Recover the amino acids of this structure.
């Protein structure tokens, strides 16, 4: 297993190096297009990967969180509203993380403490999130459908040294800190999940809660913490949509990204690296829509089919290619002292 | 029965009639037994309690949004009661999608993609309704049939995947529902084959022969009758047929069902297929009765509402009917609420989400009921001790509303100074503490007295800031602070007495 993983990593690194060399050896204009595509892929992938890794924390702990869509909306709205009032995007991020965590905490308490049905509760979170944010949109901006433009969005990191390069310039010279955080988060999550006591406990509470309980750790607490982390990350992903990539909050602006994040999580087999890969791929498909709008207008009539691809791919992958293996005790409330 | 009969025949007749009567009696008795049974009562309390709690939380949200919750809820009720045809009109697709989700639930499946099946069914019905010219009566029937079949197919595929490949139906149906929405909006869009050439992505209008006529009023069409028939049909299917029994068995315990010789895989696929058919029917009736053409992205979340309706009705067909009519009333009343109290229509969605959240956790309502009963006993036994407790609980509740209302009104004032910010912050703290006070007082927890002191301090801080800054609400704050202080003293004394009597926790 380890040897396979080692070869896999080597192959991946080799593929990336060959790809980059291949791109650099292309004509300048194509290099620019490729760089732009890389950039848009990373931007579109960021909310998906953040929410997907969030969902992983929740589901690895044994709580299904289909409410990601609602939580992302909540984060997007709060981020925009706080930035609008205080004119500081970092406070906005803080607010969105807190709001997402709060809504997820409600879901977590209902699922874990009151042993509610995870999917019913998650549906409630989605409904509440969409309704509440659209309602508050009118309260805050006195407008329907779309809030006012926010001028002070999350500032980009600018690397002037590579700005003039035809490929690296468009790809990496202007990059949002949230995009960087996506990569950092993947590494941190891998470390937390597989190298820390908390990660071990989280995985245990999702796989075999009674063992964790007999080791003297509170299953309920671990699970609730997992759900709250998922809410914070999904809230951040939402905030990136409203004050990072975009610059206003719009009604139902996540447009199903919460579900695509869920798909990325399943596609990535509930592992951080897998989710990063799946999220980048889905982000690439999302970015492809912008790409063909500019470079291949002939394909534009079929943009709906490109938008469909992530959803279809998940169905095909789950149904025909391999069985997905979710954590064993998922969606099962843990009752102390109860025999299975 | 033969008319010409002699005495023995008549004698024979009377037991038959009495048996007939006893059959009615039996039915009524069974109904009464069912209504008075513990499960039904509990379910009723849970559903009703969830609605009430959701309205309370919604009132808090309205307060914070600067709306008047009293007027809003009043006009919600008035609007619902005065427009019964709209209520039933809104309810009819919800009945069908609710039945769809409920039926799958009975087989242990969660059909979260009712929305997609609705779209596919509606598309198929729309195509039959405007591409073919058929005789009246036959046309709507064929159109509905097409909707049922295509909607059913859209759920049958995930059913097969679930049964034979183990792909979780929550994921597959959800993903397929997005596929359906994108696919249908392409079909009727400028690049698709069924576009009518206008600015909007939509099909041309249907033939008149396909349209479901109105029953009465401006809205209510024959889709409602279809929905009611579907309730009877699903009730019969689930409770009176072998297939329904087997589906319920699979839903209860899949291993036991397998052991009893039921082909659970087949049942799973069939159940999801029927469920999808019902969603498709919902979409088709909406097409033929309300919209008269397929418009891209037309559904206002009817599939999601179906989930709400199903969980509110505890997945029984008649419960779904009641739940759907309730949501129809909510939507019809929501329009009136929007028109008169100027609360955005999205409030209805918020209420809906809250109801689902509360229903997901029946233990919250159970906690309230259990402690309510205990409080009742306590009041009868030791009124002196229990009364302050209960009053304190209600004080906590009132304090939440007052604090949030005043905090909100501070923000709408013209001048915002540091003083008003401090008072708003302390009022928010008071609101949080008040919620905790309600919880502790209601469950007769002795730990509430410090919280009451905190509330008293919070209200007095607010009063002081009002006095220093420009206020006008200081009187309310002072009164609340005094009441909280009195409660704190009372609770403190009571706690001391309890400790002295040696009956403390």
């Amino acid at each position: 297993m380890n040897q396979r993983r080692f070869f896999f990593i080597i192959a991946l690194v080799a593929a990336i190096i060959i790809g980059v060399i291949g791109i650099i050896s292309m004509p300048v204009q194509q290099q620019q297009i490729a760089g732009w595509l890389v950039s848009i892929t990373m931007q579109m992938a960021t909310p998906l990967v953040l929410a997907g890794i969030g969902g992983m924390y929740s589901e690895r702990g044994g709580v299904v969180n289909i409410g990601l869509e609602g939580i992302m909306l909540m984060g997007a709205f709060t981020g925009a509203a706080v930035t609008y009032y205080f004119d500081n995007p970092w406070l906005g991020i803080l607010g969105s993380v807190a709001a997402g965590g709060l809504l997820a905490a409600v879901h977590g308490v209902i699922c874990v403490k009151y042993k509610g049905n995870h999917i019913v509760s998650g549906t409630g979170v989605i409904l509440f999130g969409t309704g509440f944010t659209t309602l508050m949109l009118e309260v805050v901006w006195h407008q329907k459908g779309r809030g006012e433009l926010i001028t002070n969005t999350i500032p980009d990191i600018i690397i002037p040294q590579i700005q003039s390069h035809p490929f690296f310039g468009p790809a990496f010279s202007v990059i949002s800190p949230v995009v960087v955080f996506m990569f950092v988060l993947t590494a941190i999550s891998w470390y937390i999940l597989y190298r820390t006591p908390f990660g071990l406990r989280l995985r245990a509470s999702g796989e075999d809660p009674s063992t964790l309980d007999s080791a003297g750790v509170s299953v309920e607490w671990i699970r609730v913490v997992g759900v709250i982390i998922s809410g914070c990350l999904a809230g951040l992903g939402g905030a990136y949509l409203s004050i990072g990539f975009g610059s206003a909050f719009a009604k139902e602006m996540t447009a199903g990204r919460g579900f695509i994040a869920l798909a990325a999580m399943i596609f990535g087999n509930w592992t951080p690296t897998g989710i990063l890969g799946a999220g980048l791929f889905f982000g690439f498909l999302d970015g492809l829509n912008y790409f063909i709008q500019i470079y291949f207008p002939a394909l534009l009539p079929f943009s709906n089919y490109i938008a469909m691809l992530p959803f279809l791919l998940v169905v095909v992958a789950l149904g025909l290619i391999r069985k997905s293996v979710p954590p064993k005790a998922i969606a099962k409330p843990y009752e102390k002292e109860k025999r299975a | 029965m033969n008319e010409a009969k002699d005495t023995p025949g008549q004698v024979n007749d009377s037991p038959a009639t009495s048996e007939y009567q006893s059959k009615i009696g039996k039915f009524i008795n069974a109904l009464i037994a069912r209504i008075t049974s513990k499960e039904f009562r509990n379910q009723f309390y849970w559903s009703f309690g969830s609605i009430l709690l959701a309205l309370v939380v919604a009132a808090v949200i309205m307060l914070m949004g600067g709306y008047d919750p009293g007027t809003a809820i009043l006009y919600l009720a008035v609007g619902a009661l005065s427009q019964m045809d709209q209520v039933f009109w809104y309810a009819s697709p919800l009945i069908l999608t609710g039945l769809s989700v409920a039926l799958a639930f009975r087989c242990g499946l969660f059909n979260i993609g009712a929305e997609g099946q609705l779209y596919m069914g509606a598309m198929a019905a729309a195509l039959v309704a405007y591409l073919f010219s058929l005789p009246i009566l036959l046309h709507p029937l064929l159109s509905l049939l097409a909707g049922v079949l295509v909607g059913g197919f859209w759920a049958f595929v995930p059913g097969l995947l679930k049964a034979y490949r183990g792909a979780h139906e929550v994921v597959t149906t959800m993903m397929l529902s997005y596929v359906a929405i994108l696919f249908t909006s392409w079909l009727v869009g400028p690049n698709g084959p069924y576009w009518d050439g206008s600015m909007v992505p939509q099909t041309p209008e249907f033939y008149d022969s396909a349209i479901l006529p109105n029953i009465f009023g401006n809205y209510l069409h024959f889709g409602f009758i279809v929905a009611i028939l579907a309730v009877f049909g699903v009730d019969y299917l689930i409770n009176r047929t072998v297939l329904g029994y087997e589906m319920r068995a699979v839903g209860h315990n899949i291993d036991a069902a397998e052991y009893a010789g039921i082909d659970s895989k087949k049942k799973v696929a069939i159940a999801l297929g029927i469920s999808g058919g019902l969603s498709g029917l919902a979409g088709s009736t909406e097409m033929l009765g309300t919209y008269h053409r397929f418009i891209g992205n037309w559904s206002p979340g009817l599939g999601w509402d179906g989930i709400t309706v199903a969980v509110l009705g505890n997945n029984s067909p008649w419960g779904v009917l009641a739940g759907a009519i309730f949501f129809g009333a909510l939507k019809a009343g929501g329009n009136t609420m929007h028109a008169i109290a100027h609360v955005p229509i999205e409030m209805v969605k918020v209420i809906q989400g809250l109801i689902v959240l509360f229903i997901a956790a029946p233990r919250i309502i159970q906690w309230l009921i259990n402690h309510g009963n205990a409080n009742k006993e306590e009041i009868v036994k030791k009124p002196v001790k229990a009364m302050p407790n209960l009053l304190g609980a209600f004080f906590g509740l009132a304090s939440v509303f007052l604090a949030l209302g005043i905090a909100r009104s501070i923000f709408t004032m013209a001048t915002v100074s540091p003083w008003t910010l401090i008072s708003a912050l302390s009022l928010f703290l008071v609101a949080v503490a008040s919620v905790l006070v309600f919880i502790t007082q209601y469950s007769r927890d002795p730990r509430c007295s410090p919280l009451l002191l905190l509330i008293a301090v919070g209200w007095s801080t607010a009063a002081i800031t009002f006095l220093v800054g420009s206020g006008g609400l200081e009187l309310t704050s002072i009164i609340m602070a005094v009441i909280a202080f009195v409660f704190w003293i009372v609770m403190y004394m009571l706690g001391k007495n309890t400790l002295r009597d040696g009956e403390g926790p």
